[in-house]
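Retro notes (design track)

What went well: tokenization of the new backbones is finally stable.
What didn't: we kept losing track of which sequence belonged to which structure.
Fix going forward: every design gets posted as structure first, then sequence, in one message. First example under the new rule, 498 residues:
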């Protein structure tokens, strides 16, 4: 028995954490494939993070306990550290970004920890945390790159093997890699034939890129929808373990993650956070099209359920796309009376409409934004064939990010008044005054021709913005000076609807 397995067997987690149930997911199971959900969302802080945090803090020596602990986190790790410190009678400071939702800040404070708000994102909060470690002498509790933290997370794997000895596949969400490292080294040591599959968002795939490159890769930026796993670089320990033990890491889209949230809800009546549903999304993608001819026993880790109520609308919108039930199209019609009726009778007849946007733009042709609910996967192709047969020009926008997040909520049409217009997707920190600071930095040199924003209850807000500029290079230089993330928009949907 190797040292890592010994540490997992000796891990101190059950003073505060519970052994979570392994729930049979009847609706997700098909043929010879049985699916089980490991319900880490049922932990006292609604996340597995409590295990690693407590195991690390419980093994501090007396001098370290007197000094107290400190951590940087915007969510589940913060709550795990705070509750663990409270149970052990240790002082805890948690550095959180200013943009952290109020519900998470209050949850950490409810466990007796002191909350320090600093920076617009996790990286800035972590930098401030490093300064405080030096000035206060507190012990830093790393969220994932620590052997004792990893050992605590590894108890999830020990429980799975005890609850389902014939497990064949385990799907694990990946952020920094601590949970993946703990589970994989335990399972693979005792039962190497089990398949360990890590799952990441396709816009936060640091482990996938690192394993592909054969070294740890630092991403330039990460998506924030699944904020619980939005990590630019995985831990060194976790990467070394993954290289040795993990069979595969796969990625999933935002829509697939949302669809998984719905799947778990239908099984359990529990709403997972996006990071908490990654494993289920990965399981669904991994077995897509496989009828389950070979007997298998699959486990998906439901890693957390700390989702704010305000994000549910966004999840519901994306769920229809992720499940394959909704498709989005831009369709060109002749701009004349009766054209819309003809289209409805010839093509839409028999399908449910989820979205229909139109605004008069010119007298020659009309562009409509159309959402259609598809009863099954074959219907989309039938619908497309119908448009082709009736000679309608169209573009499939189902995978167009601008269309999904902005255009479907706008109506207007192209404007003849604009000159030299350039469109950008811009990210703002979700805090008071952020927009005013951005506009001040831009110095009113360029006229804003378009602006669209929808709150999603995250720490980052995304804006579709249009500027009139004869010199786009100068405009881009000023955007860079503003210190925000931005990218040029050249999508089809923007060109025809805006």
């Amino acid at each position: 028995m190797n040292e890592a397995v010994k540490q997992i067997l000796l891990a101190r987690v059950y003073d505060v954490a519970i052994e979570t149930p392994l729930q049979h997911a009847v609706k997700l199971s098909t043929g010879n494939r049985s699916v089980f959900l490991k319900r880490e969302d049922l932990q006292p802080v609604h996340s597995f993070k409590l295990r690693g945090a407590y195991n690390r803090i419980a093994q501090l020596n007396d001098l370290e306990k007197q000094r107290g602990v400190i951590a940087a986190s915007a969510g589940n790790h913060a709550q795990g550290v705070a509750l663990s410190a409270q149970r052990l009678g240790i002082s805890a400071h948690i550095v959180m970004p200013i943009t952290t939702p109020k519900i998470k800040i209050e949850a950490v404070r409810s466990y007796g920890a002191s909350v320090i708000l600093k920076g617009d994102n996790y990286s800035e909060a972590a930098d401030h945390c490093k300064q405080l470690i030096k000035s206060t002498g507190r012990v830093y509790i790393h969220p994932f790159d620590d052997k004792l933290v990893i050992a605590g997370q590894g108890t999830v794997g020990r429980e799975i093997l005890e609850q389902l000895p014939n497990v064949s596949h385990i799907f694990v969400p990946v952020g920094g890699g601590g949970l993946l490292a703990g589970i994989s080294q335990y399972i693979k040591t005792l039962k190497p034939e089990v398949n360990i599959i890590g799952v990441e968002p396709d816009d936060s795939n640091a482990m996938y890129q690192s394993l592909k490159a054969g070294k740890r890769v630092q991403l330039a930026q990460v998506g924030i929808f699944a904020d619980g796993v939005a990590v630019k670089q995985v831990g060194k320990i976790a990467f070394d373990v993954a290289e040795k033990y993990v069979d595969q890491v796969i990625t999933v889209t935002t829509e697939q993650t949302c669809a998984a949230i719905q799947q778990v809800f239908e099984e359990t009546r529990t709403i997972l956070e996006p990071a908490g549903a990654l494993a289920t999304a990965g399981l669904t993608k991994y077995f897509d099209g496989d009828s389950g001819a070979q007997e298998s026993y699959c486990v998906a880790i439901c890693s957390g359920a700390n989702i704010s109520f305000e994000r549910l609308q966004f999840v519901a919108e994306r769920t229809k796309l992720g499940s394959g039930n909704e498709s989005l199209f831009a369709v060109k019609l002749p701009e004349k009376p009766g054209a819309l009726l003809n289209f409805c009778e010839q093509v839409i007849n028999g399908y449910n409409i989820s979205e229909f946007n139109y605004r008069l733009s010119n007298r020659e042709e009309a562009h409509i934004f159309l959402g259609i609910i598809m009863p099954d996967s074959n219907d989309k192709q039938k619908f497309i064939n119908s448009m082709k047969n009736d000679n309608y020009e169209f573009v499939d926008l189902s995978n167009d990010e601008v269309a999904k997040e902005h255009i479907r909520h706008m109506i207007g049409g192209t404007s003849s008044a604009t000159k030299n217009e350039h469109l950008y997707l811009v990210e703002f920190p979700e805090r008071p005054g952020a927009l005013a600071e951005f506009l001040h930095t831009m110095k009113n040199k360029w006229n804003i021709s378009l602006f669209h924003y929808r709150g999603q209850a995250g720490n980052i807000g995304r804006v579709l913005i249009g500027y009139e500029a004869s010199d786009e290079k100068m405009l881009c230089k000023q955007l860079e000076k503003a210190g925000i993330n931005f990218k040029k928009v050249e999508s089809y949907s923007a060109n025809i609807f805006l």
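Added context from the reviewer: The mean pLDDT is 88.
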